[in-house]
From TrEMBL, chains A, B, C, D:
Record carries keyword Transcription regulation: yes
Coiled coil region boundaries: none
Pfam families named in the record: TetR_N
Protein name stated in the entry: TetR/AcrR family transcriptional regulator
UniProt keyword annotations, A-Z: DNA-binding, Transcription, Transcription regulation
SUPFAM superfamilies found in the cross-reference section: Homeodomain-like, Tetracyclin repressor-like, C-terminal domain
Ranges where the HTH tetR-type domain occurs: 14-74
The keyword Transport appears for this protein: no
PANTHER family according to UniProt: HTH-TYPE TRANSCRIPTIONAL REGULATOR YJDC, TRANSCRIPTIONAL REGULATORY PROTEIN
DNA-binding region: 37-56
Length: 198, 198, 198, 198
DNA sequence: CATGAATGAGGTTTCATTCAT
DNA sequence: CATGAATGAAACCTCATTCAT
């Protein structure tokens, strides 16, 4: 109880890989992929540095793991929202989720968006494409909601909504101002409400 | 005078600093601050590596120089737009400018925004605050236009407009899709047009 | 008995060690001792990495096992050749064997010779001596044939013949040219034929 | 005089690169390319480890430098021998050179040959081809001598002579026996002498 | 100021070997 | 004996920064 030094193996096998993925997602979100060292992630996951490579052969694989964690979280959120009967409520639920993560956005931006921006600076590795794929998952889901609502140009509306989210996250982070998220989320919610029923 | 090796110091004296700033802004935009080395910037500016330090004492100062280049460009743009008599036309001119930089945004995102996102991952150095300041310059100018247009909540409108720009830049870059910029710029222009005259 | 996981231990028991030795000989010949990892050998032998250490306590023991495999092959070849009644035919049979392994020599050199060269770079471990011992086995056998042929200085002739083999293997490998083996083997055969009967 | 710590820069600029090449050739000959670390070479050249990379971007470039040193030595030797008027004397001079390096061959084998053998184990990098090129330089020169002597099949004779050298070097090294070089060099000299004048 | 060269801290990665089950 | 997982020592390499000329 005093030390966490006790062998983690006894608890559950395979949990380490999960711990590493979560640590990678978290640390990369906070520090950025370039500034994050393997040692940072290893420390956060309470795993010896050398052991990390048993689970992930390169640093890039760890970054990919962070990305897939964000994908997992997105899928969880979407599953949750899909239980709501009304697409309008689903979209407003999504926006509520963004509002709820306000402080995280202020400190570090959108996890997926800021990672995508960083990976987009690379010329090789293909991780940039992977990031685009995760973002497109959200876009497609949002588009589906607008379509179900019977709105014309659901693809454009999805771009506008998700773009607004990425924009507010970046501004809130750059200005260190939580009010940005509050205002924009309120505006977006009102925007959704302004749509007449199908 | 004796050697032809003698450089035209007086002629190029100030030019080197300028070249370094421009190179820093360009290379950092393309590669990101972390992935950019001093040697990269020196090469792009055609300045010997060892010489860089006479103009910029640290790498952070070079990043700050990149930021100030973006600030300079912003000021130039704003000066240009301020010549237009109508604030509505000024805002539409701003949006036209974004549309005109579409391909750059697709490849590397908004220069200031992506740099701000990267610097926001740092805990020290204060460059993140500097980036926020540059972004705020744009926000304030946009806000002034909305105010002059007589719109209520000009600050919120500015956040929405600039946020939309940051969002479209990030999405266009992540998806490698120029259409994102086209669509959103068209929408924003229509949005501005939807405001009645003061 | 309860689980089908139960392996046929008794059946495969000794086979694993044999598989590991063969894999070591093969992989070390192709990649060299230094570039070969325990994992490489384990994979080639289809033995779990952690299990290797029950058969070979160190990597050096595996290299020694590779050497002893080459020794075993040499002994098999010599036994075969010893069935021939004429020492001249035995020597020519040896050369034929070299010619038959031409393509292997072009790709990776003589298994024993290239391993001896690599081990000769070491200052410790004694494996270099072991490699010399295996090579001397061949030398002694060849010497015996020349002696039986009644040639003067059989030791010198053996050095010449085996040296020619090592030289052609190295050159064929370095030049990636199978013709080297063809030419030299033909020459050596003619050389043997040039000796008058005892 | 007591310490060699004094800045080497004062002596001659550019000498460091030369020192590194020589150290690489020497250490790689003694330890083999795989067992040689950058630190080993740096120490032998009295250069800080980090500085090595200013001159050679990768370890492979250092190995290539070692190879080119051997090429340089070969060219020097050949230039020397070319001063002799008689091709027979030139070839015997070459063999005398081998005999003179007897002890080095016993300890570490032929510098070029053992390096070629090691590089031949690689699948990538192209250094193996480079090693073959250097060996071919010697072959071609020897071939030219035999041709000038008016012997038939000069290419085959060159293969035989150079192959004998590589073979004796490998055997002498594997057996740790200088006598191998003595005997074989004597035999080769007699062989050359056995050719009638053109 | 100018410049190629120097330096060392720190990061990524590999791998022989050991250990818990 | 069997096995996946663990460990840490070392190797390669990068780069911001400094220095000698």
């Amino acid at each position: 109880m005093t030390h966490s030094k006790e062998p983690a193996r006894t608890r559950e096998a395979g949990a380490k890989r999960r711990r590493l993925m979560e640590a990678a997602a978290d640390v990369v979100h906070r520090q950025g992929a370039e500034r994050t060292t393997i040692a940072d992630i290893a420390r956060a996951a309470e795993v010896p540095v050398g052991n990390v490579y048993y689970y992930f052969k390169t640093k890039d694989e760890l970054v990919a793991a962070a990305l897939s964690e964000h994908e997992r979280h997105l899928n969880l959120l979407v599953s949750e929202l899909n239980r709501l009967p009304d697409p309008r409520e689903r979209l407003k639920g999504l926006i509520d989720g963004w509002a709820g993560q306000r402080d995280l956005a202020v400190r570090h931006g959108c996890p997926t968006g800021s990672l995508a921006a960083e990976l987009g600076k690379r010329d090789e590795g293909g991780l940039d494409v992977e990031a685009g794929r995760v973002i497109r998952l959200l876009l497609t889901w949002v588009e589906d909601q607008f379509r179900e609502l019977g709105r014309p140009d659901p693809e454009g509306l999805a771009l506008t909504l998700v773009g607004a989210y990425q924009g507010m996250s970046l501004l809130a982070n750059a200005l260190r101002d939580p009010g940005v998220v509050d205002r924009e989320c309120a505006r977006l919610t009102a925007w959704i409400d302004s749509f007449e029923a199908a």
